[in-house]
Each structure stands twice: as C-alpha cells, then as structure tokens.
Specification:
- The longest helix is centred in the first third of the chain and has 20 residues, at 37-56.
- By secondary structure, the protein is mainly α.
- It folds into three domains: 5-104, no CATH class; 117-210; 232-324, Orthogonal Bundle (hpI Integrase, Chain A), CATH 1.10.443.
- The protein has 14 helices and three strands.
- The protein has helices at 5-13, 23-32, 37-56, 66-74, 85-104, 117-133, 137-155, 167-178, 183-202, 232-240, 247-262, 266-270, 300-313, 319-324; strands at residues 277-278, 283-287, 293-297.
- The two termini are 15 Å apart.
- A hairpin with a 4-residue loop joins strand 1 (277-278) and strand 2 (283-287).
- Strands 1-2-3 form a three-stranded antiparallel β-sheet, with no helix packed on it.
- The radius of gyration is 23 Å and the shape is globular.
Length: 337
C-alpha cells in the first residue's frame, strides 16, 4: 500500500480499541507538524498495534502510562522470534510519542516518574534546538533520543557533570552504538552527539575540543567515484521522457521540473498545496526544514507543468475520502520510481 495521508487514515480506521477515537486527531497533529506521509503511516501502524493490545487486555486510557509501554514491548518476546534492536527502538519511540500526545490532550494522566538529571539536561537541549536552530520535529526527536542515551550511558540516573566528559566517553558511546546500527544510522547518532556537545560548549560546560573528538563513521567511496548530480543534459532527457498523455507522466514532469529548476527537496515538493502557487505574481511558497517558508520564482515551464497536472493528471476526490481530508487541498505528487 502506498504510504500517503489517506492510507494512514484508512489504517487508523481499522482501530477499534480505546485509541480509535483519538487517532484522527493524532494524524492531524502530525500533518500540522509537517511530518512526511511515510513517517505518519509508520507511526499510525504502531499506534494501531498498541490499540489492539490495549483492547485485548481491556486497559482504559485513564490509567495508561509507561508501564503499559514496557508490557507492550515485552509481548514480542513471547513470540519466540528474534527482533532487531532497531525495530524495538523504533516501536518504543513511536508509542511514547503517541503517549505524549494523549497526555497533552488530557486523555491520559501525566507521567508519575521522577525527572532525572539527564532528562532535565535533555529537555534544555530540546528547547535550544526548537528556539535557536529551528530544526524539524523529527530531527529534534532523534537528537533528543541520542542525547538521552549518551547521558544515561555515562552518568546513569545520577547527577550529570558535563565538565568530566572526555574524548574516551564519546568514543565508547559511538562504538557501543556501532554494534547494533548500520553506518547510515550511526552517522545520525554521531551528528546528534556533536549537536549536543556544541550545545554544552555554548553553555560553557565542556571544552571546545570535545566536539572534534567525536569519531567519524567510515564511508567507503567507489572507484570511479559516483557523481553527486546528473548533468543538465541527462536531466533534460529525463524530463522529456515523461509521457504527457498519461496521469503519471504529467505528475512526473511536474515533479522533475521542480527538482531540476528550483532544486527542491522531495519533502518540500510533497508539502506543496494549491494555495502555495501564486499564479498572478509567478511565485511559489516552499516550506523548508524547521517550519521555515520562502518565496521562490516560478519558471514558466514549471508553472505550465503544474497547471497541466492539476487540470488533466490529478485524480478527482472521492466523496468518502474527501470528507476525511484537511480543509486545504494538498498537491501531493509522489516521486517517480
């Protein structure tokens, strides 16, 4: 199934447990935070599994807490099959995210666990990322998780004294993470750790050289090296290859022109709405990382391709699905495979 906002809503519609009446608002909040459709689908999939587990055990939301998240994760062990560490970590992160949303809505009681020194430091780090750097919500969540793991690895649940950190501490943490993560995921851990240490350096709690002491993740290059971008001639050939007599061809041409002419990211193209196209002034409003917006000039061929897709290539909304859509219509072409 294609992972779109509509498929996520359809998946949430299968829920029949205590979470069923709250998943729609959960999806709406994720869309408002500009999560990608594929990410929202994964979060809803874990939420539906959690909902089935709660319904089977007749657990009410009024008493829901971290202990139920632990029990939910432990149910995998009863299946007598090996579960990847990354899969368990992803499941826990998504269910905890749902639990935080329910608490913010007043559906579940607030957490009763005591805040440790590490959690207090991580909360300040998260606030810094939001207010000073304006990172995307998914990036902040990932950086927060890594910072929490690093502090607990070094200090446990005791007092946190960043002044005692040494290069050997960062190396030991990265090596430990490297035992269960592939290089791309390990690179994310390294980037998050450097971000946290730069935050600590900004506060004057660690030495300036500690950030540079974070080990790098090995990256192998091919011979000859793969090009970082295709030539303009090859890009034009890809654009010209689109079959404009089909819906898919019209969509692909619009997407490729947005990529080639304006250099947009895939997520920026997916987030485009009809209201973002200012046809009178020839502008296109683009939503970048961290919720930032910018106006870009809309080239003539790009505007023509978008207009052709909207007029002849875009599917008409079905009556059932259109009622579930948010108030504004979305222009959501998927990237060509």
């Amino acid at each position: 199934m294609e992972r779109t906002y509509e498929s996520a809503r359809a998946l949430a519609g299968d829920a029949a447990g205590p979470l069923s009446s709250h998943l729609g608002a959960f999806i709406a909040s994720l869309i408002e935070q500009q999560y990608a459709a594929s990410v929202i689908y994964i979060k809803v999939r874990h939420a539906v599994a959690f909902d089935r587990w709660l319904a089977k055990r007749r657990i009410a939301l009024a008493g829901l807490g971290e202990v139920h998240v632990e029990r939910f994760q432990n149910r995998i062990r009863c299946l007598h099959r090996r579960i990847r560490v990354q899969t368990r970590q992803l499941e826990r992160r998504e269910v905890v995210h749902l639990l935080r949303f329910l608490r913010a809505q007043g559906v579940c009681p607030a957490a009763r666990v005591e805040t440790t020194a590490a959690e207090g430091m991580v909360a300040r780090f998260e606030q810094h990322l939001q207010q000073q750097q304006g990172l995307a919500a998914t990036t902040i969540e990932r950086y927060r998780t890594v910072a929490q793991q690093f502090l607990e690895h070094r200090f446990g649940r005791g007092a946190v004294d960043l002044a005692v950190l040494r290069a050997v501490d960062t190396t030991a943490f990265v090596q430990l993470q490297g035992q269960c993560l592939h290089p791309p995921a390990l690179k994310c851990v390294v980037n998050a750790l450097r971000s946290f240490l730069r935050f600590a350096q900004y506060r004057g709690e660690v030495a300036a050289g500690l950030v540079a002491a974070v080990p790098r993740v090995a990256a192998w290059s091919t011979t000859p090296a793969l090009p970082k971008a295709i030539s303009s001639q090859h890009a034009q050939r890809a654009i010209d290859s689109c079959n404009l007599s089909t819906r898919v061809g019209l969509r692909d041409r619009a997407v490729l022109l947005l990529l080639a002419r304006l250099g947009l990211r895939a997520k920026e193209i997916i987030a485009l709405t009809l209201e973002d196209c200012d046809w009178d002034r020839g502008h296109l409003r683009v939503r970048s990382k961290g919720g930032r917006q910018q106006l870009l000039p809309m080239p003539v061929d790009v505007g023509a391709a978008i207009a052709a897709y909207l007029q002849r290539g875009r599917h008409t909304s079905r009556s059932a699905s259109s009622q579930a859509l948010p108030p504004r219509k979305r222009f959501e072409p998927s990237l060509p495979r």
